[in-house]
Amino acid sequence: NHVLDISRQKREIENLRSDLQDNYSLSHMVGSSSEMEEIRNLIERVSLSESTVLVTGESGTGKELVCRALHYSSDRSKNRFLDVNCASLNESLLESELFGHEKGAFTGAEQRRRGQFEQADGGTLYLDEIGDMPMPTQTKILRFLEDRTLTRVGGEEKIKVDVRVVCATNQDLEKAVVEKTFRKDLYYRINTIPIPLPPLRSRITDISELTHHFLARACKREKRRIDGISSGAMKRLSEHSWPGNIRELEHAMDRAVLMCEGTEI
Hints:
Blueprint: H1 2-23, H2 34-46, E1 53-56, H3 63-72, E2 81-85, H4 91-99, E3 100-101, E4 113-114, H5 116-119, E5 124-128, H6 135-147, E6 149-150, E7 159-160, E8 164-169, H7 173-178, H8 184-190, E9 193-196, H9 207-222, H10 231-239, H11 245-259
Parallel strand pairs: 1-8, 1-9, 2-5, 5-8
Antiparallel strand pairs: 3-4, 6-7
């Protein structure tokens, strides 16, 4: 029974990994505009590289989707994709989250903990909102990127890790460098391959395709049958400026499906 359970678990993990690879494949990046075609081509070219990637763009433009597509299009796709939001933790917690800590390193550290860099060994670590990372942590990230070794908080042992780092931010890092809130050397180190994402208002031709994509997804989730969108509704969607970008459009379609009383939005 124990052997069967392990075999079943392995099969379930493989199925889950296959689903993730499919969900985050380049074919799932919706949009036929020249901007999206260029981004898909760039992801395809750099996915097999080990270079650090910096994805930039306004909030809601799909930065995480691009970073996941990079991972699942690469040779690392069978290993883990982990993410850390650099804006959600203070300096000490962020360092512990990234590099891990030894038992007794600080109050409450009751046992050794492997950080996200170690846990992502062989895979990809996504540093979201890297522009909000505290300066002391930036120094440690730079050191890691240069020699691919880390030291846990409270430890002395140097640990070698094989991980690809992809970063994202909605901030202007060049401006942050000038204002001395972001290290210049780290900026040049992570900006090896820049992937800037355009706001939705500059790729109007993709709105119809995205709308139908989100409509189908919302209908499936809510078990609703809605046949389509009226020309008037589509005109309104195309004329909106979408300050919240793709995320705002997705939420708008979720609401529309919930509120729709007939079979057409």
